[in-house]
Design goal:
The protein is an alpha+beta fold. The chain has one domain: Creatine Amidinohydrolase (Alpha-Beta Complex). It is 29% helix and 24% strand. It is built from 5 helices and 14 strands. It has helices spanning 6-25, 36-50, 118-135, 144-157, 250-257; strands spanning 67-71, 74-76, 91-100, 103-112, 161-162, 168-170, 177-181, 198-201, 204-206, 212-214, 221-223, 229-231, 234-238, 243-245. The strands form 5 sheets. Strands 1-3-4 form a 3-stranded antiparallel sheet. Strand 10 and strand 11 (221-223) form a beta hairpin.
């Protein structure tokens, strides 16, 4: 695993900022009556024309869009579509990657459309808390097992399951690098963290069982029992004393100060 230099990390802050700002911009566009295709095309336009960056999802494993849009029981890798029109009470995950300065940032956010159920709102909130619980374990000397243990414990204590088939991952010049970052594990086990490591933490929480299935498009992953799934994701760098969230959004800075 390549450790990032100070110069690379400085560039990475800019790449991460772009992805974060786009997810924030999309808040006003995720609403009833809008298709996931429209949202994906808007994200592509912002990446290319506003930020002079590369929509690195496009062409990655032959994917055609600037983001994945995963609605309700879709766990991950939902494919934007003109026919998929958002409606009141939908839950939507938008997962975006941006390449600039030769580095890729990867982040996702949940969007609650209109008046969602109290159950879905809680699932989304706990999912974000799980992400933060994992991030708080990031510092030199800790392990990937420490991250996974913290995430899994918070999810299961609240009655939710963690998808095990998909994990976080190393990231840098390529979207997917070593190591895998599981959202379950044992304290003190797994790869030991070092300053300069960059990776994603992206827990997927299911309302029901942890089991999933793939649709015939070979992309979309859904819950096996049809119940709601949520995901939150950030790109992280290990610092000398802890961590820095490279894709942190302004809305989170405000929330975490209160």
């Amino acid at each position: 695993m390549e450790l990032k230099t100070k110069e690379q990390i400085e560039n990475y802050r800019d790449t991460g900022r772009i992805a974060a700002e786009i997810l924030t911009t999309l808040i006003d566009h995720v609403k009833p009556g809008v298709s996931t295709y429209e949202i994906a095309k808007l994200a592509e336009d912002l990446i290319v024309n506003k930020y002079d960056a590369i929509a690195s999802c496009i062409g990655q494993y032959d994917f055609e869009y600037a983001l994945c849009s995963s609605v309700n029981n879709v766990v991950c890798h939902g494919v934007p579509s003109k026919e998929e029109i958002l409606k009141d009470a939908d839950t939507v995950n938008l997962d975006i990657t941006v390449r600039k300065h030769g580095l890729v940032s990867d982040t996702s956010r949940m969007y609650l459309v209109g008046a969602v159920s109290a159950e879905d709102e809680k699932l989304s909130r706990i999912g974000q808390e799980c992400l933060y619980k994992g991030i708080e374990q990031v510092k030199p000397g800790n392990t990937l097992g420490d991250i996974g243990f913290a995430v899994h414990r918070h999810a299961t204590r609240n009655g939710y399951s963690i998808v095990r088939d998909y994990t976080g991952h190393g990231i840098g010049e390529q979207m997917h690098e070593e190591p895998e970052v599981p959202h379950y594990g044992k304290k003190g086990k797994g790869l030991k963290l070092e300053e300069g490591m960059t990776f994603t933490i992206e827990p997927m929480l299911n309302m029901g069982s942890k089991y999933i299935k793939h649709l015939e498009d070979d992309w979309t992953v859904v819950t096996e029992d049809g119940k709601t799934s949520v995901q939150w994701e950030h790109t992280i760098v290990v610092t000398s004393t802890g961590y820095e969230i490279l894709t942190l959004r302004d809305e989170e800075k405000i929330k975490r100060k209160t």
